[in-house]
Amino acid sequence: MSNDSQTQSLAFGLLWPELNDGLHYTDVVPPSGSELTLIEFYSSMYKNSAPLQGWLQRIQNGQISVDGRVVQDPNAILSVGSELVYHRLPWKEPDAPHVLEVLYEDDDMIALNKPSGLQVLPGGLFQQRTVLRQLYWRVRKQNSSLASQESHPVPVHRLGRGTSGILLCAKTKVAKTCLAAYFSDGTSLVGANRKAKRSGTRKISKIYRALVTGILGEDKVVINQPIGIVRYPGVAKGLYVASPSGKPALSKVEVLERDGQQNRTLVQVEIESGRPHQIRIHLSFMGHPLLGDPLYIAGGQPRRFDSEFVDESYAQDGGYQRPTNPVPGDCGYYLHAHQLVLSHPTKNEMIKITAPLPSILKTRDELNSSRESISISSAN
What we know:
By secondary structure, the protein is α+β, with helices and mostly antiparallel strands. It has helices spanning about 40-45, 50-60, 130-140, 145-150, 175-190, 195, 280-285, 365-380; strands at about 10, 25-30, 65, 70, 85-90, 100-105, 110-115, 155, 165-170, 205-215, 220-225, 225-230, 235-240, 250-260, 265-270, 295, 300, 335-345, 350-355. The strands form four sheets. Strands 1, 6, 7, 8, 9, 10, 11, 14, 15, 18 and 19 form an eleven-stranded mixed β-sheet that branches.
């Protein structure tokens, strides 16, 4: 097994600009949109983006064009086949870290140590301040050729914005296909025949560290609670929660250290499936939410569930105000993707990648070893 032959001890990241570049959303009027007015089209098609008054503001502000011409009349009648473009104005995204540490890199893939607070892919308020954008800027800086810019690395799995640790990215199409298959195969095997899962077909293993509230009684726990989606304000595609009718998910939890004085437990979690927010949901489902998790509480459900309430006031850009209830991207919890073992996508070898642990997720012995190491280095 190899874990350091191509590892580079370096970090990269450019400072975020004050404002992002804004966004352009394009639509073509379908037959069902014939004779609709401009305001009717947007307020019905994209009611999750902004309330009626917000869309009126955007139209009157000159942010929408029809067939290349800015139209500020909300009552303009649309024709089938017309191209509509909504320009979302540049905005200042919330603060986010910008430095990424390279844990491993070769011609096929790159593994990064993602800091908590940095989103992986564009979404919501974060359209530029993402891992994906930093990867693009890195390639552009290394090589200005068009071909290089078009083939910048892409993440092949998810890590929540508040989760730190190993993020695996593919640098080639072959690697992307192979690595994505590793992750999807692990998830599908959980819902398939258990004998097939034990046949040695797994090509990837993911181990996390987490700090949970309360004291776990058992040293080892297997959680196979299904995860599904429910409607939730502020999350357009719905919120993932523990649900009997959801999709299969499997997590193996092992206690590393109990802290009775502070009523918390340090655990190691190996996930054999990759459902969104799986560890947060599973640990909260068993009555031990992640310490500091603003969203999930015991039972694997959200802290607040005012699903029928919608704030019709709108922000400066016309969109809805940020939800007052917690949403999945909120940070504050302690979860770290610590180790990843995988079969290399093109080489006949197993790769082990480790992301250094934050101090709060180390055992007492690990903390003491770190201090001893520092003391020895200082003495030398």
